[in-house]
Amino acid sequence: MSKLAFVKISNETKVGSLTVIAITVLIIGYNFLKGKDLFTNTVDYYAKYENINGIKVSNAILYNGFNVGKVTALDLNEKGEVIATLTLQPNIKIPIHSIAKIASQDLLGAKAIVLLFSDARTYHQEGDTLLAEVEMSLSESVNTQVLPVKAKAEKLLGTMDSILITVQTILNPNFRNNIDESFSSIKRSIETLEKTATRIDTLVKFQSARFANITSNIESITSNLKNNNQKITDILTNLNQISDSVAKVNFIQTIDNANRAIAQVASITEKINNGQGTLGQLVNDEQLYNNINQTAADLDKLMVDLRLNPKRYVHLSFFGSKNKKYKEPSDSSEIRKAKK
Asked: pTM value?
């Protein structure tokens, strides 16, 4: 009966069945190579990197060294950033603020994403984007440590170069001659100082007695000043008092003289204003002023007449000559001519 059932299956059915089986195996194998397990439930998260630093699809995702998932996709966004799809086991709960860090697994350069969990009590949901970091590569780490050493080595080489230049300068014959001359000059200076010190020592030795007498005299003078300090203070106090008294007396006397002079001037002015005395009457009496003017005018006329008619006032007759008739000036013009 079974043989008959098998015979009834057509070749087309066999080919179709094989094709389906082959496609299924191909899909399963492809997903397996991509790190996806079709027979296991998984949870996807995402991480955004500027540089994935060698991460590839199917690289492991580690937590405390344990493989908890795989990288199942790498995509570029419009900003040029790489979006990594992290497929994890469903029992892995990732706290908020945890970090997905790209790190090296070994010295050969194998890469993995290491999950660094935070201490938060809340957890990410499926499809969330985790914080991302990239561990420094071995070459970068070496460069970081080597660069300071390189800078120090370059500085050391520069210092050694300066030292070699200095040594070459010292080995130069001209420089050696200059050094010899400098040492000779220093030697001569030291010898001169020794001679000077010897002379000073001799001078002090012979003049020590005079120095002692001078010191004794100075000490005697200072002792006398100290003993007579109070007397000197009293003398200075007396001189100060005398000078103050003289200054006060002269000042008071000057003020008194000035007051008396002002009082006298005020008295004279008051008398003049009241018409007392000659100057007061002259200033205040208008009639006296007019009389003086009139007297002056008459005296002027008299002098003019005396010049015009001298014989009227002086008679000198030797021959009995007759007196000329008196001629009185007619106007002031004749008086002015007579004055001239």
From this structure: 0.36
Q: Which long-range contacts (CB under 8 A, 24 or more apart) does 191-196 make?
A: none
Confidence tier at 47 by pLDDT (50, 70, 90): very high
Residue 70 identity: K
Tell me which long-range contacts 278-285 makes (C-beta under 8 A, separation of at least 24).
none
b/e sequence 276-289, b meaning 16+ C-beta within 10 Å: eeeebeeeeeeeee
- Please check whether residue 69 is in contact with residue 86, taking contact to mean a CB–CB distance below 8 angstroms: yes
**66-117: pLDDT as tens digits:** 899 889 889 988 888 999 999 898 888 999 999 999 888 776 768 889 999 9
**Residue 94 tokens, joined:** 């990732």
Boundaries of every domain in the chain = 1-33, 43-135, 142-171, 286-339
**Contact between residue 26 and residue 32 where contact means Cβ atoms under 8 Å apart:** no
Q: Nearest 10 degrees: CA dihedral of 251, 253, 259, 265?
A: -120
* Identity at 325, one-letter amino acid code: K
SS3 131: strand
Q: What stretch of H or E contains 89?
A: none
The H-or-E segment that residue 62 falls in is: strand 60-63
Q: Are 142 and 150 in contact (CB under 8 A)?
A: no
What burial letters (b/e) apply to 83-110, b meaning 16+ CB within 10 Å? bbbbbbeeebebeeebbbbbbbeeeeee
